[in-house]
Amino acid sequence: MKTKYIWLLAVLLSFAACNNDDDSSSTTETLPPLTAGDADFSNYVAVGASFTAGFSDNALFIATQENSFPNILSQKFDMLGGGSFTQPLMNDNIGGLLFNGMQMPDGSYAPRLYFNGSGPAGLPATPTTEATTVLGGTFNNMGVPGAKSFHLGVEGYGFANPYFGRMASNPMASVMVDAVAQNPTFFTLSEIGGNDVLSYATSGGTGVDQTGNYNPATYGVNDITDPIVFATAFNAAVDALVLNGAKGVVTNVPYITSLPHFTTVTYNPIPLDAGTAAVVNGAYAAYNGGIVQAFAYLVGIGAISQEDADAEIAQRTIMFEASETNAAVILDEDLTDLTGINPQLVSMRQATADDLIVLPAMNFIGTEAVPGNPLTVNGVAIPLADKWVLTPEEQQAIRIATDAYNATIESVATANGLALVDFKGILQQASTTGIESGNYILNTVLVRGGLVSLDGIHLTSRGYSVMANEMMRAIDATYGSNFEASGNFVDCGEYPTNYSPTLQ
């Protein structure tokens, strides 16, 4: 049984976002000369995570590093006395890392994704960048993919994160120590807080919301960071960067569930004909009847009201139709646990529009758990596990943490006179009406929107150019520079939305 994903037909369309092509104006405008205002760009250091590094298409590779927003900014800062800007470049445009010549067996640190016309992604070749090779030297781009807020100050963090390990000044260095050691006059501190909720989201909420736990050493990799832990780490990072009078830009955290990693796969992708639907409904008849009996028992002993019981019975009753758009069956740990009454009554229901199915489920829903056995279809006969779905309760945990992080970021930016980029608002606009940049309208539709790369999370190079413009706009407003008024915003059309599989 196969599910339908119409967006795959997008390969037949242009990858570029819509071009307005408005060249009607022929008036030559005299622009003022570029000025720095109160900012000193002579030594720029960028601190952040994957967006800062230029991560795209699920990998880090030279082309996107060269089109990272810090590198774009450095070229503009160079016009105002900025110094050289060094980056820890990968070895190639394949992406991915080797560990003592071997790829990770779990598929992590794999080569970049590319759209090959027959599926969403493929692997162009084997990586050549060796994770254990330390680059040496000093790097202005301190973007470390995977870094969470509390990782920035951890000594020896390179042992846990090979992206930092290959560029750290010494094995026991921390990201912040290496950044501050360069004595920056200007900095960007971007997307800090994103990874503090991202792995929870991409894992379908399999982690733990650690709000109230102030010891990050006890956190799992997919857990949500406590807001006080975040605030402590963010304040420490800013305090260190501004200690010698540096000015800078910070960004807030978007609602990451607006990204196409969570919005591309619909909750109802199951096509069934009448005969198949009847067979499946027959198989679920015992479950549906058992739910009614179990709640009748709970009502009888006063454990639940009849009203609440009726609502959950309706929520948990599984019914398929002769339709192209049947909802997938999912596990939901927030349902009333009935297995103590009947071990067969696991906490499952059909998904609704309020649930978010993660992008990797695209290649899983509709497959057979036992090949050749149509009675083991995932999402139909077998419910989707927690890792495939973000339920409304899990989404709410992400939103609450994000709001708390952003309150800290705004407060710290105001207290230190820093420029603030509303990345949250930008993504909200991109995911609804789209955002205008130059001659383009960019949105978050996977492949065709122009803003978000094939992994559904990280930006395209065109997206990073838009981010650079937003940074310059905030710098103008806070420090009195005039990047925009002097015509020095970058043209996003000069930056690609995708890279050829042959680029190596």
Automatic annotation (TrEMBL):
Protein's name according to its UniProt entry: G-D-S-L family lipolytic protein
What span is annotated as the signal peptide, if there is one? 1-19
- InterPro entries attached to this UniProt entry: SGNH_hydro_sf (IPR036514)
Tell me the GO molecular function terms. hydrolase activity, acting on ester bonds
| Coiled coil spans | none
Q: What keywords were assigned to this record?
A: Signal
